[in-house]
Amino acid sequence: MPELPEVDAVKESLNRQIRGKTIRQVTVYWPPMVKVPEDRKQFEEMLQSQTVQNISRMGKFMIIHLDDYALVSHLRMEGKYFFMEEEGPKDKHTHVLFLFDDGTSLHYNDVRKFGTMHLFDKGTENAHKPLVLLGPDPIDDRFSAEYMHERLQKTTRRIKTVLLDQSVVAGFGNIYVDETLFRAGIHPERLGTSLSEKEVGRIVDEGRKVIREAMGAGGSTIRSYARSDGGKGEFQNRLFVYGQEGNPCPNCSRPITKTKVGGRGTHLCYHCQE
DNA sequence: CAGCTGCCCTGCGGGC
DNA sequence: TGCCCGCAGGGCAGCT
């Protein structure tokens, strides 16, 4: 399940592989994943003859910048890009196929079909959903203790739920939220309003650190995540609580517990997080 | 209008 | 062995 560090690694590998390439043809095999424009044929035609300028990222969204358009891509849980030197072979989970002028291709593959694509006129992408709704990245200076404390005072929600809200901060998913709250020593069910400025400061610091460390490790390869060049991340070996239920807490050796918070599987140490 | 629930979708693993 | 059910979960529509 790609979160910010994994999406960033995919962005980097795509920049190495497809920047400067011109699209000969695009085929959409699963039309519901293309949200804008609604008509799949129109999407395919707009992309024809467009050259890839570069690929950027906002939160967990990737933006493929073309001559005249911006293609906003979200991988959700299982979305992956495969770059190939040839046109194929296409497998049964490839839902969008980009064929380039030089005979290479890019396959968007997604077993769960949850991923989305939006195509906007160049320069307008930030003014439309979904990007317009995003808060700052965790590695953005705007993600500060003051900002978070203010946001937390205005809500009745629990801290984990707030950190997963992409309009507050864009990039955390279930893995890095659990890791952040463990490192900060904060129980995920604490109400936002109950947190002191000092505690919020710890959450912001640890959140930024865990995201940076995971980016440095190329993300976490959990389930089926891979970059467009097939490379995997290494951070899954450095997770303290996510997926560690029953294993000893690295801090106090008591077993890590798995529970549910806001409908999400949640990993924590009841002794070290309060 | 903030916040919650259900839905999208498929593969996998546990239980019987 | 095979079937069924629950779970995984990000984001958004549609409720309250």
Automatic annotation (TrEMBL):
Residues 240-274 form the FPG-type domain. The active site is at residues 2-3, 60, 264. It holds the Pfam family zf-FPG_IleRS. Binds 1 zinc ion per subunit. Its EC number is 3.2.2.23, 4.2.99.18. It catalyses: 2'-deoxyribonucleotide-(2'-deoxyribose 5'-phosphate)-2'-deoxyribonucleotide-DNA = a 3'-end 2'-deoxyribonucleotide-(2,3-dehydro-2,3-deoxyribose 5'-phosphate)-DNA + a 5'-end 5'-phospho-2'-deoxyribonucleoside-DNA + H(+); Hydrolysis of DNA containing ring-opened 7-methylguanine residues, releasing 2,6-diamino-4-hydroxy-5-(N-methyl)formamidopyrimidine. The keyword Transport does not apply. Coiled coil: none annotated. Monomer. This is Formamidopyrimidine-DNA glycosylase. It comes from Salimicrobium flavidum. The lineage of its organism: Bacteria, Bacillati, Bacillota, Bacilli, Bacillales. The gene is mutM.
